[in-house]
Each structure stands twice: as C-alpha cells, then as structure tokens.
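Researcher: Go.
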Amino acid sequence: MTEAVTILTAKLVRTMDDAVPTGTAVAVRDGRILAVGTPEGLTQTYPGAEVDDRYGDRVLMPGFVEAHAHMGGLDTPYFVGYFPRTAPDGTPLPGAQSFQGVLDSLKAWDAELPEGTPLMANGFDSLFFPGETLDRHVLDSVSTSRRILVVHASGHVATANSAMLDAAGYGAETDTHGVVKGDDGLPTGELQELAAMMPVVGLAGLDLSKGFTTEKGMYNYAADARNHGCTTATDLASFDTVRPGGMDLLADVTGRDDFSLRLVPATFGAVAKSAEEAEQLAALVASLQGLATDKLHLGSVKLMLDGSIQQYTAKLQEPGYVCGHDHSIWNTDRETFRAQVSAFHKAGLKIHVHCNGDEATEVFLDVMESVLAESPRWNHRHSVEHSQLTTRAQYKRMAELGMCANIFSNHIWYWGDQHIDLTVGTDRVQRMNAARTAIDSGVTIGLHSDSGVTPLDPLASASYAAERRTPTGRSWGDAERISIKEALEAITIGPAYLLKLDHKVGSIVPGKFADFAVLDRDPMEVAEPKELRDITVLGTVLGGAHFPTPVAENATA
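Model: Structure:
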C-alpha cells in the first residue's frame, strides 16, 4: 500500500543540486523524495498531504556522506588523544594534553580494571610530546603484570608493555617486519603496521573472530553519524562481510527501524596474500551483492599499500621526510597488490586503496593502468584513499583512468603544525591534500575523517579543506583552498558518486532517499569556512524517519 505524502517545511532546503538549488519545503512518500518547492506549491501539487512543520525554523541539507570511516575496530573508552572528543552518547573524552597526563590516565584505568583484564587505550600521538618516548619500559611503569596496548592516533602504530610482548611471543628472535628493536636487540614495544600489530590486538581483548563489530558498536556508530548529520557511512576495512555470522549481524541491525544509518561495509581485501586467495575472496564478495538492502550497500573492498605520514611509515617519493626519518612500510608488496586489484576489478567490485604517500599513489596508478589495459571497465570509480601527497601529474592520470580521490582534509587541522615542522615541511604542505588540484584536474573528490583516527564530523572536514589553516593559525597555502560550495559537495554528492550511490543519496532530488541533515543555519551563508564548525546539527532524517540528536531532544524537553 502506498503511503501518504508528507510535506516537510523548513526555513530553507539546500538541495546541493543546481537545477533547483533551494526551497522551503520537500515532499516525501514511501521514504523517497517527491519534490522540492514551497509549502503552498507542494500542497497544491499533493492535495491532502500532511504538512509537518517541525523543521520550520531549521535548514535541511542532504544527509552527509562519510566515505572513509571505521565502524568499530580499535574503539575503546580509554582515550589518550591530544584533542578532546565526545562519545556518541555525549560523554566527554578529555584525552591527555601532556605525556605525564597519558601515564596518569593509564595508571588510573589500571587501578580500576579487574586483575587479568587487558588495558587497551587509543589516540596517543608522540608528535605532540617532543622529547618523550612511549616504549615498553614506560608502560611497564604502569603495570608489569597486566597486558597493555596503546594504539596511536593513526591506527598504524601501537606500543605494548613487556607483558603484552611476552604474550605475543615477541622477543630477540622475532623477525616480523614492524616489530621495532632497540640497541639491545629486544623489542622496544613499538609495533608498526599490520603484520606486527594484528597478533597483539586479540591479546588486548578484542575478539578477532567477530571482526571487531558488535551490535552496540553499530548503534554507537550510527549515533555518532546522526550527531553530525551523516546518513550514509562506510566501514572501510570490514571483516563482517566474510566472517561467519557477520552478514547476519549487519543485515539484522541495519534492517531495524531504529538504526539511523545507511551502511557501506568495504571488505578488507588486503587479507588476500596470493592471486588464488584474491580470486576466491573476490568471488565471495561479488556473490553477496544480492543480499544488499536500502540500508546495507555491498560490493566494495579496501586494500592497503603504505602506512601513515605522521608515523613516518607512509611511502613518499623524493625528497621524502624533512626530518630524515623514514620507517616506511609496504603493507602489501607490489606483486600481491596487482593480483588483488586484478581479481577485485574483474569481479566488478569497487576498490578503495589506502595511499597516504605519493609513492603509494604512483604504484596504484601504475597497477590500475595495467589492469585496465588487460580488462577494460567503464565507470569503475576506484579511489585513492587519503590521497594526501598525490601530485598534480598523478591527479591528471587519475582523471584519465576514471578514478576518484577521497582526501583526508582533517590532517590539515589535527597534524597541520606537525606536518610543517616535522614530516614534509613548508613546501609540500602547500601541495598536500590538494583538493583544488584534484577538482581542476577533473577528479571527483570526497572529504573524510577516517573515524576513529579523527572525529566523524563532515562539516568540520569541509571547513578544513576550505580554510587550510592549522590550530595555531598557520597557512597550508591558499592555492589549494576550495570554495564552501565545493567543500559541501565533497561531503554530499561527491562521496556519494565515489561510492556509486549518487543515484540514491547525496542531494535532495526527486526519486532519491529522503535523507536529510537538520541544521540550525545554512552552511552556504557562513562568512568564513571556520564557521562551518560552529553549525549545530539537530538531527537527521533517514528515509523519512526522524532521528533527533541529544541536543535537539534536550532543547524540547
């Protein structure tokens, strides 16, 4: 039975579609958009429609699209990041603004936890504490008996205490790449990248057989997205699509009426270590696409090339890092990577590849050119993820190859000063996260948070790309700034295109899902890009269903 028409009135409807850029009402039926216009015009077109004025003094925009984030993984209440955060339920996470503050927090949590329970904290970043080193000896001062793991903010490095190293079997004889050793030949406690980190993650209390995902974690992720106006988000490196019971959990939770998010899990294809394994995994992921629903979108994979710039594990072309440090690591060797790309491409899947450094981007483009010559395919939209040091020449190649860029604009803020002083220097930061060059080269872009590396907040991500200023006010170069409109497109229709969902989400257009972000004011009317961060999100609408934020609920209580 066809549902009745509902007309949502608003102070402004900002559609992000140039044909009909604004309105003051939107008509909805069966969870989809019928039309944008005025209340008077729409009531004439749809006589008898219910008029809902709850957003009469609000601004409606397309629900934001977060094309690179992580639903669970290494999330933990034990947060020691430099920048404070807020949990999905509104609980403040103060973090730690000094090295001693990190240790004090760890000691306090150690005193609270039951004996034998591992302690895993996250968010630590050594760049904010020059002269200090977090190693096993420092963590042993917290506890020599409890297994402790501190995951760094990038997610590419962790530090373990001696109890954790012993449990993992890491010692003088360990030859695993990424297990850093000191002058004494013993592990320092620093673990770099996947091969070194994954064995200890399970020992820290995470059940790897469940792929990091729980029902509670899914609801927390959806709440965090809702709090920031996001209605579609990826889980970029999902094990759930292929682990036993994983698809059942995803289908069950996303199918519930109270789950406020369209989820795009990208299978972690980097686990395939041979051409045969890649082909088997590609066939499995492709076979799952028939299980997709309006709130569960399938058919994409995530691959890994390099590491993290601020941890010096990313692969950079010359002149490399200004400080002389280079701990760069290939998470996947070139031969295996080509086998992965070939298998997933031929299976018709969408491929996301982690490339922070320009050397990693170059490898991806070379492989992509080779695979496309072997197996031409239109409209693949494979994307360079993070794309932080992608050059002008590389963006031109990407356009020619039909590729997209998902740019990590949050780095401009969260590590902006550190990239100037410690990693790539004043010249290269002016070319870093080059959204202007990407757009001018004809590459469709998205802007992302990589949550939980940085907070999921699309309006903030947009502000950083338009402003290009660090927390201390230093410039990252105005030549790569983009307009506020372009920045808003890069958190709506741009990432929707990147995810091959632009026919369903990303703009307020007839036929698309009735997915909206409810805001207190119009982002297009801010005087400066930084004011985007001051806009209050009051809720989301997903398929016509209303999901107010705690801020909105408290205001009406």
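Model: Residues 25 and 39 are 5 Å apart (CA to CA).
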